[in-house]
Structures are given as structure tokens and as C-alpha cells.
Amino acid sequence: MKKIIAANWKMFKTAEETKQTITELNKLLENIPLEKKEILIFPPFTSLETAVTTNNNDKIAIGAQDLYPAKEGAFTGEISPAMILACGATWVLTGHSERRHIIKEDNALVGQKTIFALASGLNVVACIGETLEQREAGNLYDVLAEQLQQTLAKLPTPLSPERLVIAYEPVWAIGTGKTANAEDIIEAHTIIRELLKNIIGVSAMQTRILYGGSVKPENAQEILSLDNVDGLLVGGASLKADSFAKIISA
Ligand code: PEP
């Protein structure tokens, strides 16, 4: 399966800025072989439609950063999967650590969002990862197990493996400039692969597991070469087209 290089633009870029960055990226991608890579961009909701219409490269898919797990209703400020799909976006992020820790989303809500998004026809990148306190207390395995089990408890079946992607993002490495070292990444990704086998069975071998946390052009190639790393989820270093293009070509 192709490696995924995903860009999480967080709360950055107006629609006009989105148009400029994607136009620039499309030009840069003309010179990068993309047969073995799949590229995802997650702009803010207000840029989704612009991102879809500006993108003229069929190797880039667009996704939303969040959803609300209901078809429609009295949920002020929220966005449904149908609205995301109507913009032409096909992916969504769930469980990003900024939503877990700043917005206080718990595992149960992340699970509901993941299942509802998949059942509605969106593909999902579900994010998991431990805080520094949890890691230092020796709780890495338990935290990942709890997050994965609750996220994937009621997966729709059958589900083709390319529609669900897991992103391992240690909270202490996100936006901090502190990338996890190779040993940490291999350990966590191996744990995730084993947990996935228990939860979803053989298709776990085809489930892509991304690493995220201070990825930059200088470390992308090394991280991508590690066992059980099937791609990258990039925040800060994806905001500029040239930096993201370097990561894509790593
Ligand atoms: C992210 O937002 O998912 C992320 C990994 O951010 P950064 O690359 O900036 O650490």
C-alpha cells in the first residue's frame, strides 16, 4: 500500500492563503514521482471547498480536521460528515491531541466520531498518543491500548483497510520541535500493530500507521524508513509548500 504524507494545517490559512499554497504545491509536485505516495491535506473547514477546487493533482486528497457524529440537527457550531463530503473532501482527522487536550474530547467521543465518519463514507486518520507524564510513568502500552480500543470498538464491517489510518502522535512531540527518536517510534508503532491485530484481525497488517510530531524535511526520510511507519502526519512543516514538498519527496 502507498505511504501517506498528510498535512494538518490546524487553525492556519484563509481560503485565499489555501489557494496560494495549493497552487504552489501543485507546481512543485510536477517534479516529484508520486507513484508510491498518497498525499492528504487537512485545511480548516472554511478552506475545504477552495482546497478541493484549487487542487488539480489527483494524487492529493482533501480532508477536514474534525466532524460531529450526527447526520444533522441542533448542534451549533458543528459540521457533519455530509457537509464535508459536499465540499468534495473525502478524509477526516479524529482524536487529534489538540482536540483531546484543549477541547477536552474523550476517548468515547473520539470513538463515536471515528465510527460515524466511516459509516458516512469519509476515510479517517484517527490520532492517538501519550503525554510525557504517561510515558514517564511507564503507561505507554495502556494508553495506546485504551485509545485504540475505544476508537475502534464498533467499526463498520466490512471495512476496506485503506479507509482507516492510525496516526501515532506523542503529545510531547507535537509542535514542540522534539521529534521522538527512532527507538521510541519503532516501539510505539510495533505496539499499535499488535493491538490492531487483536482488535481488527488480519486487516491490521494492511492498516497504515503514520508518525506525527515535529516532522521536518531534515528528519522525514529517516522516520519513513523505520519498521511499521507507513507515512507521516505533519503540522508546522506542512504550512509552506516548499517545505511540505521536500517532505513528500523524502
Ligand atoms: C500535528 O499537528 O499533527 C503535528 C504533528 O504537528 P507538528 O508537526 O507541528 O508537530
Describe the model.
The protein is of the alpha/beta class and 250 residues long. The protein contains ten helices and eight strands. It has an eight-stranded parallel β-barrel, surrounded by six helices. Helix 9 links the parallel strand 7 and strand 8. Helix 1 packs parallel to helix 2 and helix 5 packs across helix 7. The chain is globular. The two termini are 17 Å apart. The mean pLDDT is 95. The chain binds phosphoenolpyruvate (PEP). The site of phosphoenolpyruvate (PEP) has 14 residues, from strand 8.
Task: List strands and helices in order, with pairings.
Layout (H helix, E strand, L loop, with lengths): L2 E6 L6 H15 L7 E6 L5 H7 L5 E5 L16 H6 L4 E4 L2 H5 L5 H14 L2 E6 L3 H5 L3 H13 L11 E5 L13 H19 L7 E5 L4 H8 L6 E4 L6 H8 L2
Parallel strand pairs: 1-2, 1-8, 2-3, 3-4, 4-5, 5-6, 6-7, 7-8
Bound molecules: phosphoenolpyruvate.
The site of phosphoenolpyruvate (PEP) has 14 residues, from β8.
Q: Helical region count?
A: 10
Rg over alpha carbons: 17 Å
Q: Percentage of helical residues? A: 40-55%
Number of strands: 8
- What distance lies between the first and last C-alpha atoms, to the nearest angstrom? 17 Å
Strand order of the largest sheet: 1-2-3-4-5-6-7-8
Structure ligands: phosphoenolpyruvate
How large is the share of residues in beta strands?
Answer: 15-25%
Order of helices and strands: EHEHEHEHHEHHEHEHEH
Describe the sheet with the most strands. Answer: 8 strands, parallel, barrel
Low-pLDDT runs of 5+ residues are none
Overall pLDDT level: 95
